[in-house]
Design brief:
mainly alpha, 0% strand
Length: 92
């Protein structure tokens, strides 16, 4: 097995783990944030506008972590910086 094949396998495996863990963790975080926001709105209904506004900002921050994981996975699969290094070493 050549070094290029090993780099390909490891890159695909790490990209898959990045997406899996990134989406699972953000889903758990979003679920917890929503459940706490609903509990807070049930206790103080007159503050629900402020709670909802803060909830949406928090959900956007949590979702950005999933987007970062997607970007890392796309870089590993399509624009891996190790590819060029190993191709240059193999060719010359």
């Amino acid at each position: 097995m050549s070094a290029l094949e090993i780099i390909a396998m490891v890159s695909i495996a790490v990209a898959g783990l990045t997406i899996a863990l990134g989406s699972m963790c953000t889903a758990l975080g979003q679920g917890r944030a929503i459940s706490q926001a609903l509990a807070s709105m049930a206790q103080q209904p007159d503050e629900s506008a402020n709670i909802v506004r803060t909830l949406f900002v928090g959900l956007a921050m949590i979702e950005s972590l999933a987007i970062y994981c997607l970007v890392v996975a796309m870089i590993l699969v399509f624009a891996n910086p190790f590819w060029n290094y190993f191709i240059a070493k193999a060719g010359g």
